[in-house]
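re the bet — no i am not wrong, look at it urself. input seq straight from the record:
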Amino acid sequence: YKQPVLIEKFLNEREFTVGILGTGKKARVLGIMEVIIKEEKFANICGVEAKEACEAYVEYRLLPTRLERDIVTMVLKTHRILNCRDVSRIDVRLDEKGHPHIMEVNPLPGLHPTHSDLPILAEKVGIPYKTLISIILKSALRRMN
């Protein structure tokens, strides 16, 4: 951008993380989970310290359905445009009017069984950790023939 600093408006509303499985037209949303920071000292930002002690500082809730359509459409389009393969996790935050915005795309999301958002989300929607890993591997194998 040929500038010393890039400044963007801070979105201080609700935050969600979205798990996506598959590649291209076969990609589907695993689920959408709201990330709620329980400690004021983190200023509503789920950074490294909050994630490392997520049991104490972070609450995860599945998304209410009224927001689901807009977020699903946006993240699947993003996953496909960026040519993400087999799995990704996309973080979304709402603006003051309730419109979703992509904050971050994780084409290689963490897979720690108890500390990573994607496995936590999978468990919340009824997919055990080993099944999640199997789904990701099967997607890669299909893609590689």
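see?? The beta strands are 15-21, 28-37, 58-62, 87-94, 100-106. told u. also The longest strand covers residues 28-37. so pay up
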